Amino acid sequence: MVNKTWWLTWFLVTILFSFSTVSVSAATPTKGFKIWPAKTTTEVNKVWTIDFNNPLSSKSINESTIFVTDSKQKKVSTTKKLSTDGLTVTVTPSKAYEAGDYNLYITNEVTSVTDVKHDEFIIIPFTVQVTSRGMSSATLVVTVTKDSKDTVGDLSGVLSLEDPSGTRLSAISKDIDAGKYTFYIYDDGDYSLKYFNVENSVCVINGTNVENSVINTQSIKLPTIKLPVIKEGIITITPTVTTKTASLTLATKEGVVARKSGSIGGQISIEQYGVPITVSNKTSTWTTRTDMNGNFVVYLPTGSYQLDIDGIDTQYKKHSYKLTVAAGQMASPQDIVNVEETIGTLGLKLDAPVYDFESALLGGISSTTKQISGSVNADAVVEIYDIAPATPKLIVTSKPDKEGKFVAKLSNLSGKKLQLKVIDSAKNVYILSMISVIT
To answer: What domains sit in the chain, N to C, each tagged with a CATH number?
Structure first.
């Protein structure tokens, strides 16, 4: 194969980091998958210039091979232009970027004029941000350590700070030896540290070693930050700056062996790559995905957590578990998790005269109906809405007793159109709706 070196350069911009998880790479692991350092810019018409050392085929430059996504994983309209020598691609937004998080993708479907594919799949996270003058500000110094040693050196992933609006800020400086990362803060509010990395490993499938890349994230809520107040009418060119501190300890496999941390792990019912896994407590959230063998593991400090596992698609049931992590040990669900279990009715059985018609429609209700009763799974709640208005209105919430029995009291139903939702502890939802308004 032709030896190739690929690189990217900036054109009139600096960019900030985004933790947006992009579905285009979630289905299968990609050989050479790389996340480049995050950038930030205040230039809303920012242009990317991508330089290559071999001429490209113009047919390979399109919306599927080079593109930008926003924080909701939707593609942003851009114009791609290949230079006459075939060595440079510029990516220009069709309209000005709004403030927020974005990702630039350069996929391994880009090919040279000799039909040689680019052998790396690259993501460059960035944020478009506009800061206000005349505001007080703060520097936040975050000390990062690993459970297995005092400092981390250079992080294998990317650390950013999410502000109250959801914008993610990259560090303005870092001291690798001390494990200290410094961020600027311009607003009061609740901030979160976000750590994002790709764990590369090898698994064996049918006797063949296969690269197995899994995306992991960690999010930690910080105490509310308050900035000094500047009197109205006073504009400062150099803002008042205060310094605040925070810390982040990364749990690792080595830390589990040393009995300083623990883990949560397990296996799903099929060998499926990419099923979302979330572990959380009151202040922190970790996410990962299953590997190609359907296994998963998250390294954690000791404590109590909730484990949430998605089904393989939206029609399949999510699963939720309460687990306690001890030092040096792995906590797991008791059984292999069935990610192909249909949501079903969540145990809903209605008492007459109200009935469930073909698992979709709610029947047997009139203007004189005073209650809806029945039974559901013990971990579920029943919510009843009026969906006649453009914005549905919650009428009543009913929790079942220990035997799963519930009673939802109702009144004045004339002119209403009811919808019944059953929601369990894993946020699975079963819905029944009336066809027409009650007269």
So the answer is: 6-128 (2.60.40.1220), 131-250 (2.60.40), 251-342 (2.60.40.10), 349-433 (2.60.40)
